[in-house]
Write a structure and sequence with these properties.
The longest helix has 25 residues, at 2-26. The chain is 43% helix and 18% strand. The chain is an alpha/beta fold. It starts with a helix and ends with a strand. It contains twelve helices and 15 strands. The strands form three sheets. The protein has a seven-stranded mixed sheet, with helices on both faces. A five-stranded parallel sheet has the order 2-1-3-4-5, with helices on both faces. It has a three-stranded antiparallel sheet with strand order 11-12-13, with helices on one face. It has two domains: 46-170 and 310-392, Response regulator (Rossmann fold), CATH 3.40.50.2300; 173-302, Rossmann fold, CATH 3.40.50. It is globular, with a radius of gyration of 24 Å. Helix 3 (69-88) runs parallel beside helix 11 (330-348) and helix 4 (108-121) packs across helix 5 (132-145).
């Protein structure tokens, strides 16, 4: 009996000690995302687990390894900042938010796999994906599940083909139209060459509308040369045609990796001209082994300027710099706005985490067409039922190795 009593007392002591540890864990602040991990959860769920309280679970998908990692890391990091701010301020409708970001390596199949991983985790809303091709693939899955999806940067029209998906970024056609309008209205050039990726929905979508609007605006497209995913390292032919046809500006509706090669090859052949792009060029200054001085004078349209002087931008840039040691790009700003848009529509619909994924989606869809958001990437942003955002672009120019807002 003495032995039995001793064992009981020892067990009670161990349970008491473990309870104390659980209490300490519940008070522990959320750990910061690690860019080398393939997932990141924004907040420690031990508080909710110990009290039985529910949380909102928001997932994210994008490339945080590989050639397009600069996009995915920006989205993951900025969303983390927004969620940490929201949790610190009391959460959404009184509930804390958990955040889980999965790496898709810019691969459609891996992006769908990441979506299934997040579903198993309990995701209720998807903030993603980051790139258009992956977004289209995953949007087919969210449509089947009637899960609300808001993409910060998937700009293809096909991304929002289903009624449960909305964009924070401009659609590709709108980028093409805005680029042609800016070039024509500001007298940047009259003769334009285009180099685009015909195998990419982002690039070809922008080019198609750019060509239409350029003609309507009186711009002359002197050459329009395509490349594909299987042939995107040698651009000598495309550049030669632009030069021979007297292009005053080369329009690049492409991603920064290929753009860096084009700038390098243009320099080697002695072709000095203006280059103009869209949001895909945001990130060109960080390309490994690229001489960033070759990007001097490159212009692009983007909804966000890190050197803007409004209080919201300054605070965001300062916090991003503090955490990650660099200035945020447009993808980061769109992700930050996406998270706060989710907060606004959940609050407008008085949504709580106990609701089904489908019911949450219906509330969010209704909220998206009624809210107006003052964000980093636009004031008074609104959405139409087709999922497209209404906001104004900003013109940027690379000067002194930095993106500068053109006043």
């Amino acid at each position: 009996m003495k032995k039995l009593l001793s064992a009981v007392l020892a067990t009670a002591l161990i349970v008491s000690m473990l309870s104390g540890c659980a209490g300490a864990s519940a008070d522990t602040a959320a750990t910061q995302s690690n860019a080398s991990d393939t997932s990141a959860v924004s907040s420690d769920s031990s508080d909710q687990a110990s009290t039985g309280a529910a949380t909102f679970k928001i997932g994210g998908i994008g490339p945080i390894t590989g050639g397009a990692a600069v996009y995915g890391l920006a989205v993951m990091n900025a969303a983390q900042i927004a969620i940490d701010e929201i949790n610190a301020a009391g959460g959404i409708n009184g509930y804390q938010v958990e955040y889980n970001f999965q790496d898709d390596e810019l691969d459609n199949e891996k992006s769908v796999n990441a979506y299934n991983t997040l579903k198993d985790w309990g995701m209720q809303i998807l903030m993603g994906t980051v790139t258009s091709g992956c977004c289209v693939a995953v949007a087919s899955e969210t449509a089947k599940d009637n899960m609300f999806q808001i993409t910060p940067s998937g700009s293809a029209v096909d991304c929002i083909a289903n009624p449960n998906v909305f964009q924070v970024c401009f659609t590709d056609p709108n980028q093409g139209i805005a680029a042609a309008d800016y070039i024509a209205d500001n007298g940047v050039a009259s003769k334009v060459a285009v180099i685009y990726d015909s195998s990419d929905v982002y690039s070809s979508g922008i080019y198609a509308k750019f060509a239409e609007e350029a003609t309507a605006k009186g711009l002359e497209i002197v050459s329009a040369e395509a490349f594909t995913a299987d042939n995107k390292t040698d651009f000598s032919v495309q550049l030669q045609k632009a030069q021979e046809n007297g292009a005053e500006l080369v329009f690049l509706p492409i991603y920064y990796t290929e753009a860096s090669l084009i700038l390098s090859q243009a320099d080697k052949m002695g072709y000095a001209t203006k280059f103009f792009g869209c949001d895909g060029l945001d990130g060109i200054l960080g390309v490994e082994n690229f001489d960033a001085s070759l990007a001097e004078g490159v212009m692009l349209l983007t909804p966000f300027a890190a050197d803007a002087t409004d209080d919201a931008t300054k605070a965001f840039v300062a916090e991003y710099n503090k955490r990650f040691g660099e200035n945020p790009n447009q993808f980061a700003a769109d992700a930050y706005d996406a998270v706060y848009t989710i907060k606004a529509i959940l609050e407008a619909g008085n949504v709580d985490p106990s609701m089904s994924v489908s019911d949450i989606c219906e509330k969010c869809k209704s909220g998206m067409t009624s809210v107006s958001i003052d964000g980093l990437t636009g004031l008074g942003m609104t959405w139409s039922a087709d999922g497209a955002v209404n906001k104004a672009p900003k013109a940027m120019e690379i000067k002194g190795g930095e993106y500068k807002l053109i006043q």
